[in-house]
Amino acid sequence: MNKYRLYLVTDEHQDIEALTFVIKEAIAGGVTMVQIREKHGDIRAFIQRAMVIKALLLNTGIPLIINDRIDVALAVDADGVHLGQSDMPADIARRLIGPNKILGLSVENETQLEHAQSLPIDYLGISTIFPTPTKTDTVYTWRIDGLSKAVKSSKLPLVAIGGINKENIQTVAQTHVAGIALVSAICHAQSPKIACEELNQLIG
Q: In this predicted model, what pLDDT tens digit does every residue of 22-37 receive, in sequence order?
């Protein structure tokens, strides 16, 4: 099974109640991976959220990924970590989490994509595909052409993120990218379960 296929990234602005609802629905709708993103909260709040979500994912086979924070990932024994370009270097992160955890890294341009090929990581988050309100510091957008080229040139599986929704997800899937990550299209749906089912269908 392709664990990257439908990759949910949580919305840090949702409280634990809303988040619990989204995760339960997303599991029922066929999400294949969950990353907790928590940019503004304190470390205790992050650990608390991670523990709640970890309990929901128990026995589902859906990996739990922690964004940025190796300490939180180790504290809750998550399945992996996703790093940004300004986070801990990948080789140090790999040493800390060990060989069996999933390690992802965001790449934001072709130079980073090329450099990442030799790093001890499992997949690359390719960001940002389309302009999106959830990421305000975007310098580069890959668009479909850039994504297609990246898929062909990368030895590592790529997960596309940024501005992807029901309207454009089919075009993204047609690049044969390994996975598609979404925030708003799932977290802000009236029924995240139905949203996930529809997105899975559109991915094909």
A: 999 999 999 999 999 9
